[in-house]
Design brief:
Layout (H helix, E strand, L loop, with lengths): L3 H8 L17 E4 L7 H4 L2 H9 L4 E4 L26 H16 L3 H12 L4 H14 L11 H4 L7 H13 L9 E2 L16 H4 L2 H13 L6 H4 L4 H22 L14 E2 L23 E2 L3 E3 L2 E3 L1 H17 L1 E3 L5 E3 L5 H10 L8 H4 L2 H10 L25 H20 L5 H4 L4 E10 L8 E12 L15 E9 L2 E9 L4 E11 L10 H7 L1 E10 L2 E8 L6 E2 L1 H4 L12 H6 L7 E2 L12 E11 H4 L16 H4 L25 H7 L3 E16 L2
Parallel strand pairs: 1-2, 3-12, 11-20, 17-18
Antiparallel strand pairs: 4-5, 6-7, 8-9, 10-13, 11-12, 13-16, 14-15, 14-19, 19-20
Helix pairs in contact: 1-5, 4-6, 12-14, 12-17, 13-16, 13-17, 14-17, 16-17
The structure holds CU2-O2 cluster (CUO).
Length: 691
């Protein structure tokens, strides 16, 4: 990146808790601030401080004076040491204003100045969030890569003793190349006395949590309309979280646990306790824990107040609206919940997006306030001066078993709406003259057996340096090793006969578990709610026989490990324009290493389901002049940047609605454009070191 302004923006992701004048970019670069930028703490020593940090640097980037200093009073309610929560309406509001302020900066230089000026005056997590949203949405910052959140605030993702080791390693061993990898322990949050611990590898996976953070970053619920009002965002809120639950429930079957029970009763005890043992960067305390069998109570604190009865009232109103088939806006107008837009309306209203909800006064703030009540269960009236637990933070919420219980409650509301719609009919499901004759999924090895896939543990490492503040010198890489589930890459092959002219189809691949945790067969209605989207892509069908091949690594759901944990320093950045474009906003996507559920050592059976639908009914006309987006591989959950969602069917099609047949076999028997085969996932309990 030759433009020093863009470089400065990139550097502001580094060392989030250090003052903005300290060296960045491995000690090579410093931002030269106007005197008026120094906070009161350093103002009298501004010369000293700036001289001290500008010795021996290779590059000084001058920061322009601000034309007008912003009034930051709107953010006062959130102190620099408070925890910041996207589920908290006050915090959402503050973030919305800050994003608007960033977007309003008239040019790149003034945006850089504004960011440098505000950074040390605002809560650092708030700053990093709003800053990342602004970078993602400003026209002039398209080339700035957004640092992965696990690197900005590593404490939210890993066991804190690993960070201590990392700091020590960095202070003792000057040469980055000689530093050992710091090991993040496995299974550190509970013992196997706790059944839920069997899923810890999924809940506490760094890639899973960073995906979830990234999704909420791409689809904020409040803020400037231009940022919030993205194509089908409410529907995508439903679908992305629905898919997380399908995966989680299937993962539970693999570990002999039953499906998640929805948290429908906010008056009962929550049997699942959770002790996160991770550190919040802003106050250097571990996130509060929740004991087993905790009762939820009304929250009445300076930073949040919500009564359980209010949430129940919102829930009842939403459910009643679904039964009636319409919602009412604030002027009492009835808006039908139809089969195309109904789910999008409900998604924004239930989440709730204060900017997009059709009537936030009446339908309230159901999903977010659920997060809030649960996250303060340990100290609802602030008598112990404790902050929220992991459920209050999008970077950490998925670690807690109760996340899945709350989201199952939310998902059941969406599913209820979908279940009331008519089942799909033959004209919606079929594709005349197209027949899928054969499907298989196979590992790469030449002697591999078709339809037997493999999972195992893998030990990988990622660079956590960006977020390590006050290291000995502003340098270097800190590699942390951790163990995660992995799957061996595989290839799908389908044989398709096209008894018509050349045409285009959309190939949709799902896997559905066949049996539950007790080995009892699942009905189609259960399978459809557990269907896991694996991939979706368009395919050209020539007249006659076609063979379609697709690699698991090309999945429209997932992003590669390397993209989740890429190093982002100048030395790593690609030169070519296309390559550089890839470097942009591309961190959203399900982690490829969790593409397949774990399976079982003896093998676990799934239905591999393939459907080719008629592209002429699926295609979406993108508005002209949208910039070419180089990272569109994970669009199923994340959409395309600055574009319409590229599939006209409702998300999850054909499993989002009831189906006209009694079983999956009957369905694929009735429609030639669908096929299924038995697929076995075998888990091998060994740890493979990443080469
Ligand atoms: Cu993603 Cu509840 O929406 O965490």
């Amino acid at each position: 990146m030759t433009n020093t302004d863009l470089k400065a923006l990139e550097l502001l992701f580094q060392r989030p808790l250090e003052p903005v004048f300290t060296t960045r970019d491995q000690g090579k670069t410093v931002l030269e601030l106007p005197d008026s930028f120094y906070t009161d703490r350093y103002r009298n020593d501004a010369d000293d401080v700036s001289n001290r940090f500008s010795q021996n640097v290779e590059l000084k980037i001058p920061i322009q004076e601000l034309a007008r200093k912003p009034n930051l009073d709107f953010a006062k309610k959130l102190s620099l040491k408070n925890q910041f929560s996207l589920f908290n309406s006050n915090h959402q509001d503050i973030a919305g204003k800050l994003i608007q302020l960033f977007l309003d900066a008239p040019n790149l230089k003034q945006f850089v100045s504004l960011a440098a000026f505000t950074k040390d005056r605002l809560n650092p997590v708030l700053f990093q969030y709003a800053y990342a949203v602004a970078i993602a949405h400003r026209e002039d910052t398209r080339e700035v890569p957004i640092t992965n959140i696990s690197q900005v605030f590593p404490g939210n993702f890993v066991e804190p003793s690993a960070l201590k080791d990392a700091r020590q390693e960095a202070s003792v061993i000057a040469d980055t190349g000689n530093r050992v990898h710091v090991d993040i322990p496995r299974n550190y949050t509970a013992s196997d006395r706790e059944d839920e611990q069997r899923l810890a590898y999924f809940r506490e996976d760094i890639g899973v949590n960073s995906h979830h953070w990234h999704w909420h970053l791409v689809y904020p619920a409040s803020g400037p309309v231009a940022v919030v009002n993205k194509d089908r965002r409410g529907e995508l809120f439903y679908y992305m979280h629905h898919q997380i639950l399908a995966r989680y429930n299937t993962e539970r079957f693999c570990n002999n646990l039953k499906r998640v029970q929805p948290l429908s009763n906010l008056r009962g005890e929550i049997p699942e306790g959770y002790f996160p043992k991770i550190l919040s960067s802003v106050n250097n305390r571990t996130y509060p824990s929740r004991i087993s069998n905790q009762l939820l109570r009304d929250v009445d604190r300076p930073d949040a107040s919500i009564e359980i009865a209010e949430v129940e009232r919102w829930r009842d109103r939403v459910l009643a609206s679904i039964d009636q088939g319409f919602v009412e806006n604030s002027s009492g107008q009835r808006i039908p919940l139809d089969e195309v837009t109904g789910i999008d309306i409900l998604g924004n209203l239930i989440e709730a997006s204060s900017t997009l909800s059709i009537n936030s006064q009446y339908y309230g703030n159901l999903h977010n306030q659920g997060h809030t009540i649960i996250s303060f269960a340990h100290d609802p009236d602030f008598r112990h001066l404790e902050e929220f637990g992991v459920m209050g933070d999008v970077t950490t919420a998925m670690r807690d078993p109760v996340f899945y219980r709350w989201h199952t409650f939310v998902d059941n509301i969406f599913n209820k709406f979908k279940t009331l719609l008519d089942p799909y009919n033959a004209s919606q499901l079929g594709f005349d003259g197209v027949s899928v004759d054969y499907v298989e999924a196979k590992l790469g090895a030449s002697n591999a057996q078709a339809n037997t896939l493999l999972t195992y543990w893998q030990k990988s490492s990622a660079d956590l340096a960006a977020g390590l503040d006050f290291g000995p010198s502003a340098d270097g890489n800190i590699f942390a090793s951790f163990t995660h589930l992995q799957n061996a890459p595989f290839t799908y092959t389908f044989n398709v006969t096209n008894n018509g002219p050349k045409r285009t189809g959309t190939c949709r691949i799902f896997i559905c578990p066949k049996v539950d945790e007790r080995n009892q067969p699942l009905r189609l209605e259960e399978q459809r709610l557990l269907a896991i989207e694996m991939d979706k892509f368009t395919c050209e069908l020539l007249p006659g026989e076609n063979t379609i091949r697709r690699e698991s690594s090309d999945s429209s759901v997932a992003i590669p490990f390397e993209r989740s944990f890429r190093p982002i320093g100048a030395a790593y950045q690609p030169k070519g324009a296309d390559e550089l474009a890839r470097f942009r906003f591309c961190g959203c996507g399900w982690p490829q290493h969790l593409l397949l559920p774990k399976g079982k050592p003896q093998g676990m059976l799934f239905d591999l389901f393939v459907m080719i639908s008629d592209y002429s009914q699926d295609a979406v006309q993108q508005p002209t002049n949208t910039p070419n987006d180089a990272c569109s591989t994970a669009y199923s959950f994340c959409g395309l940047k600055d574009k319409l969602y590229p599939d006209k069917r409702t998300m999850g099609f054909p499993f989002d609605r009831r189906l006209p047949n009694a079983s999956l076999a009957e369905l694929t028997g009735a429609f030639s454009n669908m096929a299924k085969t038995d697929l076995k996932i075998v888990f091998s309990d060994r740890i493979v070191d990443k080469a």
